[in-house]
Amino acid sequence: TASGAVSYTWSPATGLSTTSGSVVTANISSTANYTVIGKSGVCSFAKTVTVTINSLPIISVNSATICAAGTATLIANGATTYTWNTNATSASITPSPTISTIYTVTGTDIHACKNFATSTVHINPVPVVTPNANSAICVGQTINLTANNTGSAIYTWSGPNGFSSSAQNPTIANATISNTGTYTLTISLGGCAVSNTINVVVDAMPTIANAGPDAISYNSSLVMSGNVPLVGTGVWSVVTGSGSFLNNNQANAQVTNLQSGQNVLQWTISNGACPASYDDVIIIIKDLIIPNGFSPNGDGTNDAFEINGLEEYTNVKINVFNRWGNLVYDSGDYKNNWNGKNMSGEDLSDDTYFFTLQIPNKNTVKGYVVLKRK
Description:
0% of the residues lie in helices and 44% in strands. It is mostly beta strands. The protein is rod-shaped.
């Protein structure tokens, strides 16, 4: 652009849009000098200008490979300001694409010259990690750790007691309690590493069961004498005979409804995957021996109505009736102490009397007894 004269002549003509006029356009690829001569009447003057061609900036940007759900860092260089196709205007961006994606950055230098570059973010799939182990392990057995097959992946195991392995499916022989805990499996594939965990429990051997001593009793309700387990839990069961436990997990559980004769009860202590320990106890229940007569004459022999075995019971209720059905004696806690007197303390006459015995946890017993003093 020239000014101050009436007409202008430009030279050389190379690259110029025109050689006359106050404004011309130069279309050149390298720096060049141009001279313009301005005339006003008979006067003229000349001036030379230099048109400088600046090189385009060389823009560079890195590409990246990330794992699925990861984040890439892309950094552009070679310009003063930058504009990305994400509308970001910083030199670096941190995209998290879900698929492989091309990013374009345009750089502008101090001369306002622009250039661009592209970057590709590649996505590698994340491996699936599924650790497993045998679920039932007792001390001395083998722990079998297994991992899902992921082709050419790298497997890394770590766990309690300093355990580590690069095998896909490692084993731990002769397992101990110290092998109990959390095991971590890391699978690396294509630069992507993912971890997952599994808990392994190694059970200790249960306490050796002791069901207690065998017993002979008239009472069909007893308290058991099993040992309290230090390791594991116990449970009572009936092997032969009968019996009802109020709480079959208690070592000293009460058992009722034992049948007459032999009953075999079993105390079992178990702990997880380990073999259980068993012990049996034999309980023989004898029938009550009820006499069919007594002679309360004060001679020290058969002076009371004594039922052998009744001393093992409490809260035994007895009702005694004469032949006409009249109640002549009763007790809510009979102790083998009926001596032939009625409830007023008077001697009953020699006769046959009828009784009912109500014994806790047993069927009511009915019978008769002959009272004869001579």
